[in-house]
Design goal:
The strands form 5 sheets. Strands 5, 6, 7, 8, 9, 10, 11, 12, 13 and 19 form a 10-stranded mixed sheet that branches. This protein has about 575 residues and is α+β, with helices and mostly antiparallel strands. It contains 18 helices and 25 strands.
Length: about 575
């Protein structure tokens, strides 16, 4: 949705270094600038495999939403308004509630490209090296329901956002870890099946939501990030198994952060090759451009600097940032990578490259980081097991698992079960099979024992699903949709009138409840509706306001009055 900009403002923006960057790439600035300076439309991903997905579609259609036509591999929607221009408070409230209850994920449309390009298989172990706030990591998790996503985030503050988004969606197949992306720890052979490196970048293609970029960006900003971007991608490439694939992406237009980084990755990782992105199949109607191999050098005003065979003396510029001809190296097939500009599809801008670890180039059959640098002429030594504390995650005991599964009628073999504090998380079995049980060798040939994630710094495993409440394992609201197909006990059938009255604020006395119900944790069932409750003197709903309001909306119950 493009909002016309003031002509005086457009003239001012046309003189910025950012517009100069666009011109140097052959972009028609007259067409690009009005879009690049306008607000982004609200876009989102629909959460798959939810029982009420058809209702969510109806709600999105009711406020003017339409499917994004070029996103054919996952269901994504675009609204006819921007974030700051909701047509009314009710529409804004609906979108917020659908997001907060995990039915949709607000995400910029082009940000959905990397997981689609990676094309992981259902049972793959995949990694997102820079995962917060979690839109791509959760998208990957939805693509590998029987696999596992290693969602890495170095920043403690941003890691909380990642954890929140995992919980909001009730995703069990995610392991959250905290490493500097340049130094992610070793893991068991053969390595990771697929990796997304959505690198920290200058954001030159995010002008529609980061307006300050028009005032702050100059070419030295991208150059200052080049080494960080390369180092993160190279470390990821060293963790990729032979035959595995890696996506490198940024939300930048700057070739220094895109094609130049791709060239440097290939120089440092000769076991990789670029793969042609099959745009005709993956997103057939997406307007895009091929990557370039002849980018110019720009001065701080984004004027093209003269090339005379020597590196110009410009802030932060180094030989690795030059184009292949200037570097004197053979150019890789950079036209296999893709660029998306803001005005092409009324989106943000993006860059994506796809690599493959060529199996024949690593006959050892494992990721490069796991290959010993020299032959070990002694017996390997078992390294000390890391010490546990109250924040450590460990496998739940058989007693705890049996207690939960007997109460709720769950087949315990479906999940792996993890204990942290007073909570039990559930995860796919890949976490045990690929990461927890195998031993891991260090670079000297010694090894950490099994039954530990070390040397990975794991913060959370899977989805918090049960909490110890007065000696009983109650279900957590955010895990209810995940548990829905598996719970066969602890369900109490009620009439719709009872459900309606409780959603309107009634907290009935247990002795007066219309159906016999045991004390402790239970789930009320009325048709498709599941309502977790805690039964003591009264029967109390254990759902938050957003979920309560969604259920009220479904049932046509008016909003609660102030007295409630």
């Amino acid at each position: 949705m493009v909002r016309p900009a003031d002509e005086e403002l457009l003239e001012k923006l046309a003189q910025t270094p950012l517009s100069g960057l666009a011109r140097s790439l052959g972009i028609n600035v007259e067409s690009w600038l009005p879009v690049a300076s306008s607000p982004l439309p609200v876009t989102m991903r629909l959460t798959p495999r939810r029982h009420d997905i058809d209702w969510t579609r109806e709600m999105l259609e009711s406020v003017g939403g339409k499917r994004i036509p070029w996103m054919v591999t996952s269901e994504s929607w675009v609204m006819p308004f921007s974030k700051g221009e909701f047509p009314d408070d009710e529409t804004k409230k609906l979108i917020v509630q659908l997001h907060e209850t995990g039915r949709i994920t607000r995400q910029e449309a082009v940000s959905m490209l990397p997981p689609v390009v990676l094309e992981p298989e259902d049972d793959h172990l995949v990694m997102d090296t820079c995962a917060a706030p979690g839109s791509k990591a959760t998208q990957l998790a939805e693509a590998v329901p029987n696999g596992l996503v290693l969602a890495n985030e170095p920043s403690s503050g941003r890691l909380n956002l990642l954890t929140t988004n995992r919980g909001r969606l009730g995703i069990e197949n995610m392991l959250i870890m905290q490493h500097d992306g340049r130094h992610i720890g070793r893991m068991p052979a053969p390595g990771v099946d697929g990796i997304v490196v959505d690198a920290p970048c200058s954001g030159t293609a995010t002008t529609r939501k980061n307006r300050e970029l028009w005032n702050t960006w100059t070419p030295k900003v991208g150059r200052s990030l080049f080494k960080l971007q390369t180092d993160i991608a190279v470390r990821a490439a060293n963790l990729l198994r032979p035959g595995g694939r890696m996506v490198y992406s940024t939300c930048s237009l700057d070739p220094i952060e895109n094609e130049a980084v791709v060239c440097e990755i290939l120089q440092k990782c000769p076991w990789l090759k670029l793969i042609e992105i099959d745009t005709d199949r993956l997103f057939p109607s997406l307007m895009h451009h091929k990557g370039i191999d002849n980018w110019p050098i720009l001065d701080e005003e984004s004027n093209v600097a003269e090339w005379n065979g020597e590196i110009p003396k410009l802030p932060g510029l180094s030989q690795e940032m030059l184009n292949p001809i200037q570097r004197g190296i053979e150019s890789p097939p950079l036209s296999s990578t893709i660029r998306v500009h803001q005005h092409d599809n009324d989106t943000g801008g993006f860059y994506v490259a796809l690599f493959e670890h060529v199996a024949d180039r690593t006959p050892e059959g494992m990721a490069r980081s796991m290959i010993l640098k020299r032959e070990l002429n002694r017996e390997p030594v078992e390294l000390p097991r890391p010490k546990k504390n109250k924040h450590s995650t460990s496998l739940a005991t058989s007693e705890i698992i049996d207690e939960i599964c007997n109460h709720w009628g769950i087949d315990k073999s479906i999940f792996s079960w993890w204990y942290r504090g007073r909570r039990v998380n559930i995860c796919t079995n890949v976490a045990i099979e690929r990461l927890y049980k195998p031993i891991v060798f260090n670079k000297k040939g010694d090894y950490w024992p099994d039954d530990t994630f070390h040397p990975l710094k794991v913060i959370h495993v899977g989805q918090p699903s049960f909490t110890d409440n007065k000696g009983q394992w109650r279900t957590r609201q955010e895990a209810l949709e995940l548990l829905r197909p598996h719970i066969t006990k602890g369900l109490v059938d009620i009439e719709e009138a009872t459900m309606r009255s409780m959603l309107q604020g009634e907290v009935p006395l247990t002795e007066e409840f219309p159906t016999e119900i045991e004390r402790g944790s239970a789930i009320l069932r009325c048709g498709e509706y599941l309502l977790p409750v805690w039964v003591a003197a009264r029967v109390s709903l254990m759902i938050d306001d957003n979920e309560r309001d969604i259920l009220r909306l479904k049932l046509g119950i008016e909003n609660r009055g102030e007295e409630e």
